[in-house]
Amino acid sequence: MTISELLQYCMAKAGAEQSVHSDWKATQIKVADVLFAMVKEVEGRPAASLKTSPELAELLREQHQDVRPSRHLNKAHWSTVYLDGSLPDSQIYYLVDASYQQAMERVPEQVRHQLSV
Q1: Which is it for strands 34-42 and 45-51: parallel, antiparallel or unpaired?
Q2: Beta strands in the chain (DSSP E)
Q3: Among 92, 45, 99, which Cα is nearest to 73's?
Q4: Distant-in-sequence contacts of 45-48, Cβ < 8 A, 24+ apart
Q5: ∠ at Cα 11 (10, 15), nearest 5°?
Q6: How far apart are the first and last CA of the chain?
Q7: Which GO terms describe its molecular function (predicted)?
Q8: What local confidence, expressed as pLDDT, does residue 67 receive?
Q9: The domain that contains 52 carries what CATH number?
Q10: Which residues contact 110 (CB under 8 A, 6 or more apart)?
Q11: CA-to-CA distance for 24 and 91, rounded, in angstroms?
Q12: Which residues, 6+ apart, have CB-to-CB distance to 109 below 8 Å?
């Protein structure tokens, strides 16, 4: 999977907005100002930081060398996933969906209703 493909998938989510975090040289994808993905090259490889439950993050890191604690975000919840590694694209899409759902839980209810129209 490429960064472009992942960004396209993220931006298809209702309310998704893209910006650049200049300090980290990363593309941030947010919904209603809540971050759900950060995409950039890490060590010359395409990667995305995605949020999961701490339990899932730990399990993924144990099972896949291409999933690591995120460098700049809360390491218990955020993992950096290499897009060109051992994780199948379908699992990366699942993790994007899960991260988006966690972000939506933090979005005010009124905004969530507007986005679901």
Answers
A1: antiparallel
A2: 16-21, 26-31, 34-42, 45-51, 67-69, 78-82
A3: 99
A4: 45/82, 45/83, 45/84, 45/85, 46/1, 46/2, 46/3, 46/6, 46/82, 46/83, 46/84, 47/80, 47/81, 47/82, 47/83, 48/3, 48/6, 48/80, 48/81, 48/83, 48/92, 48/96
A5: 110
A6: 30
A7: DNA binding
A8: 95
A9: 3.90.1150.30
A10: none
A11: 25
A12: none
- Which domain range does residue 89 map to? 3-115
pTM summary value = 0.92
Would you state the structure tokens that stand for residue 80, as one six-digit string?
A: 């950096």
- Give the pairing type, strands 26-31 and 16-21: antiparallel
One-letter identity of residue 70: S
Tokens at residue 47, please? 């990667």
Q: Give me the number of domains the chain comprises.
A: 1
CA distance 41 to 43: 6
Per-10-residue mean pLDDT for the chain, 117 residues long?
Answer: 96 96 90 96 94 94 93 90 93 96 93 80
